[in-house]
Amino acid sequence: MNTQRTVIFLGDGMADQPVEQLGGQTPLQYASTPAMDSIARDGVSGALLTLPEGFPTSSEVANMSVLGCDLATEYCGRGPLEAAGRNIPLAADDKAFRLNLTATEGGVLKDFSAGHIAQDAAEELIRTLDKALGTGDIKFHSGVSYRNLLILSGPGYSAGIKTDKPDDCHGEAVADHYPAAAGPEAENTAQLLRNLIEQAPSVLEASPVNRRLVKAGKPPANGVWPWSGGQAGALRSIKDKYGVSSAVISAVDVIIGLGRCLGMDVIHVEGATGYIDTNYEGKADGAIEALKTHELVYLHLEAIDEVSHEQNLELKLKAIENFDSRIVARVLDSLSPEELNAVVLPDHPVPVTLGKHTRTPVPVAARLAGREPDSVMTFDEIACPNGALGAMTNGDLMDLLFR
C-alpha cells in the first residue's frame, strides 16, 4: 500500500446560494470554517458538476459522480444501494424502492421525514406495515429513521417506474406525485405502489406509535412515499478502477450501500444518526483510524443536508461549523500535509430558500502533496470556481487524486 493517504470530506447539501439574511453571502461564506479554508488556501480549487441532466437530482447520483462511477452504465436507482447498505441481499428479479415515512394532512405532504421520526418508532411502524400490507413477495424493511425500504420479489414486478423525490414536494398533494409506469410492462407495479400509498394511512394512523407522537405534539408518521426503484447492478470497485484501498464512513444506508457496492470497507460509528445530533468526533476518529490501513477514506456527513431541507438557516450554519471544527480540523490535525491529501466538497447544493437539490456545480478544494497552491483563499461557492481545477465533471476528481 502507498504511504500517501487521502481523505474526502463530503458535506452533504452544504453548497447554497447567496442569502439575504446573511448580507448576500452564502452559508459557507458566512460560517466560520478555518479548517476547510485551509484546504483551499494550501491547495487547488474548482467546481464539480455532480448532478448532470438526464439523472435524478438525488444524493446517490451526486455521490456516484464524486466517486467516479459511470452513471450511464452503472446507475441502478437508490433502492438497491440502500438494500446493500442494510445488507439485504437482492435476487436477480427483486426490485427495491426507497420508502419514506411521511407526515401528511388532508392529502398534502407536510414533512418528507415525518418529523425525523425516532428510530424505535420508525421500526415499529415498518413492522406494522409489513404485517398489514406485506405478502410473500411484498416486504417492508426498516432503515434509518424515516428512510426505509420496500422490496418487491419476482419477475412480475418492474423497476420502470417514474417517481418524484418527496423532499421536492412539500406542501403539494401526494396524489399529484403518484408513481407512474415508464412503459406498459410497469403499469401493474405502478398501480401496486399507488395502492400501498392509499392503504398505508389507515394502517399507520391506527398504530399506538402515532397516538403517542400526536400526544407528544409531534407530527404523525401517517404516510409512505416509495421512490427511486431499481434492481441490483454491477459497479466497478474503487480498487479495480483506481488501484487503492478505501473505506467509507456514513450514517445513511445509501452512502454505506454505495461504498459497499464499490468494494469499500464500511466503518461503523456509534452514535452516527444522519442528523445534526450525530457523533461528529466519532466520525473523525473513525477516519483517523481507517487512514492507518486505507489509502482513501470517504467521510460523509448527512446533517447539513437534512437541516437544509428543513430550510433552517441557523441550523445549517451550525452544522457547517460543526463539520469544520469537529470533523475536518480533527482529522487534519492527525497527519501532516506531507502524509495526507485532503479534499472537501458537497455532493450537491440544497439552498435553504428552496429546501431542495439543484444541479449547480459544487465547490471543490484539494490539498495535494507536491502540488503548488492556486490563488483561492477560502472554501465557498464563489471563490472555488476561480481556482486552478476549473470546471470538472464526472470522474475528474478521482482521476486528479489517483491517476
- How far do the termini sit from each other? 15 Å
CATH class of the largest domain: Alpha Beta
Structural domain count? 2
Architecture of the largest domain in CATH?
3-Layer(aba) Sandwich
Regions with little confidence, pLDDT below 50 for 5+ residues: none
Q: How many strand segments?
A: 15
What is the CATH topology of the largest domain?
A: Alkaline Phosphatase, subunit A
| Main sheet: strands, sense, barrel | 8 strands, mixed
- Rounded to an integer, what's the Rg over CA atoms? 21 Å
Average the pLDDT over all residues and give the rounded result.
96
Share of residues in helices? 25-40%
Q: Report the β-strand fraction as a percent range.
A: 15-25%
The CATH superfamily of the largest domain turns out to be: Alkaline Phosphatase, subunit A
Number of helix segments?
14
Major sheet: arrangement of strands: 11-10-12-1-13-14-2-15
Shape: globular
- Find the structural class using helix and strand composition: alpha/beta
Give, in order, the helices and strands.
EHHEHHHEEHEEEEHHEHEHEHEHHEEEH
